[in-house]
Amino acid sequence: MLRNGSIIAIVLIVISFMAFRVLWRGSSYENFDQEKWKLQKNERWKMASGLLENKLLIGKDSSQIKALLGEPDNRTDSISQWVYDMGGGVQGLGFHFDYLKVRYKDGVVADVVHYKAWD
User: Fold this and answer.
1) How many domains does the chain have?
2) Beta-carbon neighbour count of residue 2 at 10 Å?
3) How far apart are CA 41 and CA 88, in angstroms?
4) Tens digits of residue pLDDT in 44-78
5) What's the pLDDT score for residue 2?
6) Is residue 48 part of a domain?
7) What is the C-alpha separation between 46 and 62, in angstroms, rounded?
8) What is the DSSP string of 45-108?
9) Residue 3 covered by a domain
10) pLDDT at residue 14 is higher than 60
11) d(Cα 97, Cα 104) in Å, to the nearest integer?
């Protein structure tokens, strides 16, 4: 027969394991895959790290970016910025919406930023 202390320890271990799974669910990241980018718009956020860490977009002109990522979801010509919707998902205890901002200077990509909005 289990004593009260043993039961409490087992319950705490189970709760800890469940909390760990909830907090880390959805935190998988992938390398950039052009086909997945174009076909799985809501899963693009998983490829953001691959795009940024490998600097795949830096130095490319707008036609190269369109060939790689497709048409942007939003374009601000006055500041030469394109925005791509990268979907979102559950991560930790909240939901996130992700966007990739591509900024141009002198006709080529100078900066790429991954924005994440939490709900």
Assistant:
1) 1
2) 9
3) 9
4) 999 999 889 989 999 999 999 999 999 999 998 77
5) 59
6) yes
7) 23
8) GGGHHHHHHTT-STT-BHHHHHHHH-S-SEEEGGGTEEEEEEEEEEETTEEEEEEEEEEEETTE
9) no
10) yes
11) 23
Average pLDDT over residues 96-104: 95
Nearest to 89 by CA among 38, 52, 43: 43
**H-run or E-run covering 109:** strand 108-118
Mean pLDDT of 36-46: 93
* pLDDT value for 16: 67
Q: Which of 25, 51, 15 is nearest to 36 (CA)?
A: 51
Domain hosting residue 76, numbered range = 29-118
3-state SS assignment for residue 111: strand
- Confidence category of residue 25, pLDDT binned at 50, 70, 90: very low
Does some domain include residue 6? no
The one-letter amino acid at 27: S
- Give the pair of three-digit tokens for residue 37: 């980018």
3-state secondary structure of 19: helix
Cα 45 from Cα 29, distance rounded (Å): 8
